[in-house]
Design a protein that fits this description.
Layout: E1 11-12, E2 17-18, H1 24-28, E3 33-37, H2 40-53, E4 75-78, E5 81-85, H3 90-106, E6 113-116, E7 121-122, E8 130-137, E9 144-149, E10 152-157, H4 162-175, E11 180-187, H5 207-219, E12 222-226, H6 229-239, E13 242-243
Parallel strand pairs: 3-5, 3-6, 6-13, 8-11, 11-12
Antiparallel strand pairs: 1-2, 4-5, 7-12, 9-10
Length: 244
């Protein structure tokens, strides 16, 4: 964003961080991997696991929340790994990604990989399976993210890094701990009607219609459903960041 260069100070409001109050290169300059997920507690548990795996921490170690000045998001860091919560749904993760990408820019980071991890609803898979997203699709199975900007509809691509998908699949085969597949991820605008559930406050379709829709999704290559992948893919692609 060329407008950033004209700003005396860039305040990342929802992170409670700013270029005028924090030394971004000193704090984040060594970051190479960013893992994001919905829940703050899960992302804290994740950074504790990563710390132990990297030999940078162990049982009983505490990992302070870098965004302690706000209750919007939580952020934890161990070595070259940053763990950030993003809340639920496209609007929440979009706000987080804008500030995260600016943080990485101000910190002068390079060769960054961002991976979104989280739960999702599977289609045609055993519970507990892992889906590595080939591309994110909308609720009509199109690989695109649609957003209204200045009153105009803008459509952006949701393709993700293919080589990274292959690398992650190779890792899963070496670990052999989870059933892992590469497939498309459908991103919806809500948890209930948008995903064909029958137990929301409103439901104007029947089970037969639901199953027919899920079969169409499966036939199109969709293997799981969630609510953040489309804007994640679009923003990573536009920013030139390797994402999955």
């Amino acid at each position: 964003n060329p407008h950033l260069e004209k700003m005396k100070e860039d305040i990342l409001y929802h992170f409670a961080l700013g270029t005028g109050t924090h030394d971004f290169p000193a704090l984040f300059g060594d970051v190479k991997f960013v893992c994001v997920g919905g829940s703050p507690s899960r992302m804290k548990a994740f950074i504790a696991y990563i710390a132990e795996e990297l030999g940078l921490g162990g049982p009983g170690c505490d990992y302070p929340n870098i965004c302690v000045g706000t209750d919007r998001y939580a952020m934890y860091k161990v070595g070259p790994v940053l763990s950030v919560s993003h809340g639920m749904g496209i609007p929440s993760i979009s706000i987080m990604l804008h500030e995260l990408i600016k943080l990485l820019h101000h910190a002068k980071c390079s060769n960054i990989t961002i991976i979104r991890i989280g739960t999702s609803g599977g289609i045609g898979l055993e519970p507990g399976s892992v889906v590595i997203t080939r591309q994110s699709v909308d609720a009509t199975f199109k690989p695109q993210f649609e957003q209204v900007i200045l009153g105009k509809t803008v459509i952006r691509s949701t393709n993700l890094d293919e080589e990274l998908a292959k690398e992650l699949m190779q890792c899963s085969q070496e670990i052999s701990q989870f059933n892992t597949v590469i497939g498309n991820t459908m991103c919806t605008l809500d948890f209930y009607e948008g995903q064909g559930r029958l137990d929301g406050a409103i439901c104007l379709y029947n089970e037969e219609e639901k199953l027919r829709y899920l079969q169409e999704a499966y036939d199109s290559g969709v293997r799981n459903i969630e609510m953040e992948s489309s804007v994640f893919a679009a923003m990573c692609s536009l920013s030139g960041v390797k994402g999955k």
